[in-house]
Design a protein that fits this description.
Length: about 290
């Protein structure tokens, strides 16, 4: 069953994102992952089968897997344990929703890069640095970095996020919290990278969002999903070129190949692109978790 919108839910809307719709339950939130997909900050009209279920289930897996490093905002994904006011939507929400604590979000994107790609590659080619961190000369596209680096960015309400230095982050939120964000982000990346490697995948980079719950830092929103991370097939990895990925890169490459100007409205996606993108998401889930998507 595809889900493109959640207008059937008669609860106060907390925030409507490109993919997730979040509803207000007082001290809790109901996060619903739809099958919408976006690229270059534009949402497409076509839906990607099973995408919402993959995103929700992967986050659940990682929240549990990394709980020894840091707590998270997840309460449950079991719809039978949702509050009464949500019970009537159980069939629509099963497998694609999460009941979470409402936390005070830290307004920064915490990005960790282990390989040189994306916006990090573009900045490196211009300056030899990423977020003020000097890197060795002559690195190739997708080359492994000497060690993972923390490259935070602003969290823009509209438009694109902007990379900032650690010092700029510390000036904004304080050195203690900035240091904690950096150290936890790198610890999360290292643990997830090791697990991914055991499944034949490379975790190239990822982004996190954090919040404060009962005075403690927790990881929130999503975690190591194909929407927030680059996963590559290890057996086909070779630096110096783009890699086979398990995210919406296939879709991005298609819309770039047809000359789309990356401005709304989004172009129509052929069925082949829709189905191949769906297959990429499902494969990422099944390889990372070792489970079949139900």
């Amino acid at each position: 069953m595809l889900l493109g919108n959640t207008d059937f839910i008669r609860l106060p809307l907390f925030v409507k994102g490109k993919v997730r719709d979040v509803y207000d339950l007082g001290d809790k939130l109901l996060m619903v992952a739809t099958d919408r997909i976006s690229a270059f900050d534009v949402v497409f009209s076509e839906l990607i089968p099973n995408k919402g279920r993959v995103l929700n289930s992967i986050s659940e897996f990682w929240f549990n897997y990394t709980s020894d490093i840091i707590g998270n905002h997840m309460i449950t994904t079991d719809v039978s344990k949702y509050p009464g006011e949500v019970a009537g939507y159980a069939d629509m929400l099963r497998g694609r929703s999460m009941l979470v604590h409402k936390v005070k979000m830290v307004e920064v994107e915490c990005i960790v890069r282990g390989y040189l790609e994306g916006s990090g590659l573009k900045e490196y080619l211009k300056t030899g640095m990423i977020s003020g961190i000097k890197l060795p000369e002559g690195l190739k596209q997708c080359e492994k970095l000497p060690e993972p680096i923390f490259t935070p960015s602003t969290k823009a309400k509209e438009g694109h996020d902007m990379l900032i230095t650690f010092d700029q982050l510390a000036d904004t939120i304080g050195t203690e919290l900035a240091t904690q964000l950096r150290d936890v982000s790198i610890a999360l990346y290292l643990k997830a990278s090791k697990h991914a490697e055991s499944k034949g995948l490379i975790l190239a980079d990822t982004k996190f969002e954090f919040g404060i719950l009962d005075g403690k830092l927790v990881v929130a929103d999503e975690l190591f999903t194909p929407d927030s991370s680059r996963f590559w097939a290890a057996d086909e990895y070779a630096p110096g070129r783009p890699q086979k990925s398990f995210d919406k890169q296939y879709l991005r490459e298609y819309v770039e190949s047809i000359g789309w100007d990356k401005q709304p409205p989004a172009p129509k996606l052929p069925d082949e692109v829709v189905h191949k993108t769906s297959a990429k998401y499902i494969e990422a889930y099944e390889r990372l978790t070792g489970k079949k998507l139900q």
